Amino acid sequence: MILHEFPDLGWLKGQIAQGFGNKTGWGHRILDNTGFPSVIINARSHGCYRPDIKGPFSLFVNLSGESLCTVDRQTYRLDSGNYFVSNQSQEYTLQIEEGRTTETFNIHFGDRFAGSILNALVTPADRILDRGEEAEVSPFSFFNQLYRKDAQLDTLIRQIIHSHDSEGFDKLLFEEQLSGIVEYQMQQHRHIVGIVQQLPPVRKATRIELYKRLSRAVDYMRACLGEELDLETLSTQACLSKFHFLRLFRLAYGLTPHQYIQQLRIEKALQLLAHTSIPVADLAYGLGFANSQSFSRLFVQRMGIYPTHYRERVK
After folding, report:
1. Which pTM does this prediction carry?
2. Which one-letter DSSP state was computed for residue 224?
3. HEC string for 161-186
4. What digits encode the pLDDT tens for the residues 217-266?
5. Which fold has domain 2-191?
6. Where are the domains of the chain?
7. One CATH from 3.30.70.260, 1.10.10.60, 3.40.50.1000, 3.90.1150.10 for 260-314
8. For residue 39, what pLDDT is reported?
9. Whole-angstrom Cα distance, residue 135 to residue 19?
């Protein structure tokens, strides 16, 4: 189901509390099963505050504008270049600041839906028949963090928008498309597991905790690209000493913090050059460069082309 408005908050919390036992979705839609349904909320909002929702496994995505998502007392700022993941039964708070226009594409996977897909991905072929239709759904958990919205995810989202705008809602197609999103997120998780394994050979739980701390610094980098960032600030975000942070960051990501920030700035610049008309000088200052010359120099080094020429090519 695809909704173009946020369901009434009181109604939603009531339905969650009773597990959608009446099989009724927003707008009096009849659901096939009890439990939170699979739903995408593709809505334009000029401001909202939706606190303490105990949701299913979800991807919070913005097609334009910004929003804030809070889980476990940690708040993440989302824009159109990243997305955030919350897990089954985690309480989240979603906020869009008053006066800002944001178009959401928040994907909420139905109870058991994502778990069933993940089980199918990891179950050996010779065991599929033994399990039958009612295969046990193992618990799963992804990292709560900002993820970069790359071309692959953009394509999956565009396919969903185009197919249901032009042909009407098709449940079979919708579930196939959501399965593709789950598989995509599993790829991102495997990539993170590879990063975790680059950290020093200590207990697994310690490596995961170190990764979570480093990822908080990365989230801060993404949120503050236009600011002057230093090692003291970033290591404080990670709750590590400066030089432990520097060593562990380089081990995990294969780049120094400065190199990683410059990479994020170039990625953001590509997006802005392609989709806005912001002058290159203003774009450079907005991304934290001292002047447009230093931005252009780095852009040419990374992309082999000047920013103005890149914009002309992609427009």
Report:
1. 0.80
2. T
3. HHHHHHHCCCHHHHHHHHHHHHHHHH
4. 999 999 888 888 888 899 999 999 888 899 899 999 999 999 999 999 99
5. Jelly Rolls (2.60.120)
6. 2-191, 199-254, 260-314
7. 1.10.10.60
8. 93
9. 21
